[in-house]
Amino acid sequence: MTSSDAKKEALNHISRQCEKWSNDKDLFLKANEAEAVLLALNLLTVLGIDQQKVFPQYKCSKNYKVDLAARFKALEGSSKFSKPDLIIEIKKPSVTFAEGEKRYASTVLQLQTYLAAEKCKSVKYGIIFNGCKVQLFRKHGMLSYPISSILSLDKKNINGTISYLEQNIKQDEEIRGSIITVWNNKGGVGKTTIAQALAILLSEKILYEKKEKNRILLIDYDHNQGDLTANCKMERSEGETKKLLDAEFLGNLSKEKIISSLPTFTNIPEKGKPPRFPFEVKILRADSKLSEEGADYIKNFAAGDRLPLRKLCLQLSELFDYIFIDAPPNYEQSIFSKEAVSAADCILPIALFQNNNSIRNYAKAVIEHIKPAQESRNDGGPFSLGIWFNRWRTTWTPTPTRGSVKRQIDTTDQEEDQMELKRIFYKPNTTNQLRKIDETADIARSIMDTKGLPGVVRYLKARNAFNSLVKVFSD
């Protein structure tokens, strides 16, 4: 049997079985996980992954085994299976995959736990699968997030689903960078400081099995204020971002031209002894021309579902390992806030310790703004990461903050929205543990001194305050 025939037969088998389950409720309810595993093996065949490169019950850590692991190519010089490229967590068909379902949420958490495990460092993609539905996740460093909606394998949708998976599972290409928007709908929570600090700290890291340090791009999309641009000791540009948003202009630029056109924020001297913590970050500055456009921005760039910043960032993500967007607040009034949120693979939410408004604003934004943005994009994003509480004072009791979080969750009407808020506000596998960035004067004060360098460059205490956050992205 040729490879083409094997793929066709596997595709027909999936389609026939899904049709049987859809026509016979009793058969559907009695179907077990083993039957879904067989369909998952067929799915891998359809995607061109040889069964000899598939390993069941792969032990990804001391305590965890994932249902299937696969390699795209054979591992040279070893007969033992290791370094998978893809893992699949499988459930029986009656485990419903739908946003807000408890079993769906627990399956996603299970997959993300496996993706973060020691023996899954090589993994690029994860899949959840129940025989009828599938969702694709990508892994980048320690970060994992969905890059598809929940896709159906029924007769009507199976060809479109397979086509989507084939296009988005890059077996022969280097995985692109991740686009992260640092955001809350409330201002003054420290988004700019955190975006800059995180970009600097990750610029020192090296991704798994790579030799070079991370390539980082910081985008200042608060064109009216431009605080990030000022913090990087630069002036706002006169039309730089506006030009890049024009797809035709961008398409005529080489990769080298794009990179060379972006100014560099660095502490590395041209001559002399290198600093203790050298960093180098590219900057796409706030643009005074876009600030002047106002409503014309929508007319020229963001009509309908064009999402120009998203398209720009997807192209730039081929050149950078991480893109961090510093987003303005006030989603309802600011087109730049809307664009920055819609551009992201992931939202990194920031709230203030002991500040009820920042907690309430993000909880509200998840339902009123991010949820519709996800429905509009229909590709799994933008995905909210866990929220971080900035300026956490260890000498203060956290009771008011914990109480505020609980109230926002408890007073949310829909159960599915409550589950999403719990996922965002609480650390995984805990009942009410929050994520914190400890307050330290060293974080902010150094930008006011003569060197004007961020605290994470000059002070260990400031760097250490971000350790837990950095581990979300890199080990």
Fold and architecture overview:
Strands 8, 9, 10, 11, 12, 13, 14, 15 and 16 form a nine-stranded mixed β-sheet that branches. Strands 1, 2, 3, 4, 5, 6 and 7 form a seven-stranded mixed β-sheet that branches. This protein is α/β, with parallel strands linked by helices and 475 residues long. The chain has 21 helices and 16 strands. The protein has helices at 3-23, 25-30, 33-46, 102-115, 158-168, 191-203, 227-231, 240-245, 247-251, 255-261, 288-293, 296-300, 308-316, 335-343, 356-377, 399-410, 415-425, 441-445, 455-458, 460-465, 467-473, and strands at 54-59, 65-70, 86-90, 125-129, 133-140, 143-146, 151-152, 178-183, 216-220, 264-266, 280-284, 322-326, 346-352, 383-384, 388-392, 435-438. The protein has two domains: 3-168, tt1808, chain A; 178-473, Rossmann fold. The radius of gyration is 23 Å and the shape is globular.
